[in-house]
Amino acid sequence: MTTTLTMRRAGWLTGLGLLAAIAATAGARADDVAGTWLRDTGASKVKFAPCGGAVCGTLVWIKPGVETPAKVGQKVFFDMKPTGPNAWAGSAFNPEDGKTYTGKMNLSGGTLTTQGCAMGGLICKSSTWTRAN
């Protein structure tokens, strides 16, 4: 009887462990990236939000005194669709050269890494973002 009770408890605890693991991974949704992010250079902020069935990023702030062709209100990330847990792919617009590139985003904790690539991924440029208050 003791063995049966021990096995039931072990099964119950294993079940709880699985539920906890599922709950932890269920939080990795596309809307986790939603919000305003500050670029590592401190020169700009982008607000990511759902748009249709994807995520888009719009420039919402440029540091005063920064010379750039970018304009507040410009969409710089668009059609970013989930490709896995905390990962998206779509398009990234670079206001500096006026070109649109293949874009990727990865969220790890409080850090968002964006990447724009050209020539089939041979040439890429990355930026790191942190959540803005």
TrEMBL record:
Domain DUF2147, residue spans: 35-131
Superkingdom of origin organism: Bacteria
Signal peptide: 1-30
InterPro entries: DUF2147
Keywords: Signal
Protein name: Uncharacterized protein (DUF2147 family)
Organism: Rhodopseudomonas thermotolerans
